[in-house]
Prior knowledge:
mainly alpha
Amino acid sequence: MTSNPESIEPEDNGLIYLPEESYDDAPPDEFRSHGLKLLVSAAGRIKDKANRELALLTALRSCREELEAAKFESEAADKRLEEVKNVYDLATRVLAGYTPFEQRTVKKKTPGIDGGQAAKRIKIKRESTDLTADPTADVDTTDHGPKNEEEVPLPTNPIILPQQYTEAKNMPPELVAEHKEAFYQKLLHCSVSDLPSYIPPHTSANLKSKTQLAEWIYIARNWNTGADGMDAGAFRAKYKTWYSRMKPVTVNLGRRTGIHLRTLPDDGTVLCRHSKDGSKSIVYLDVERLFDALFEIHSVELGHRGRDATKNLADERYANIPDAQVRHFIETCPVCLGKKKGDSFGIL
């Protein structure tokens, strides 16, 4: 029996029925994917909005189930391939005079200073999806069987948010205002007075407005439960682009992952990620706070030291200050420019 996509129409009650027989003698895998395409196509043609959304959610659940089944089949095939490969390798080594491990004479090793135990590297549990877990909450110590990876709680280090600066030592208010305007003009081609209404491009990973960060916090807060009438699966499907970019369920050391929320006494909830070594939280800043953060580090704390020192300290506190922002800040710093020209601005 040959099935035509146009032949499948939604019923009056919003339900959709797929053909039970394959089309054109297609392979089973191809038939399943074709059926899902028909399901989505038919759901999209339902005129009633409520029934259409219900049908699309049903199609989404079917797609998710098919993905999970395909993943299981793929993992099983990979496991069989690895087992056969190991047996093949063993056969070739035995043929070449290799002695299997169980037939060897075991020699007892003298333990070293660590008792013969190799250093263990902490791995973060990838299966955890709780972005809002309280790191001070009681931990479930029930034995659930062997675990391949160790669970690591969220960091509890203090979160440092920059103060607002209008002046500093050897820098009167007019000089700070001049630096701030020059920095944002160079970085964003935007005046300081226009910052509250400035919306960075969504493609920019490091420049975020207050509104965009608030949206990220909303997504992270509802990632496990869903919101707006959607369950967790539908909610995650809606924001899958955010997930693929931020990878909230992992804490891979050395990568920009491990998104989580921290609650501060005076500043509400902030979006954070793990530092490179995984030991602490570093916070995301909106564009209006970038100048104050770099000014606090470079001009107040480090006394106008170079770019490397500024960048290293920024990386210990903040999640979205790349080299380009540090370079633009120093290139527009009037004190640093004055040093090059021989002006001191009062610095001895």
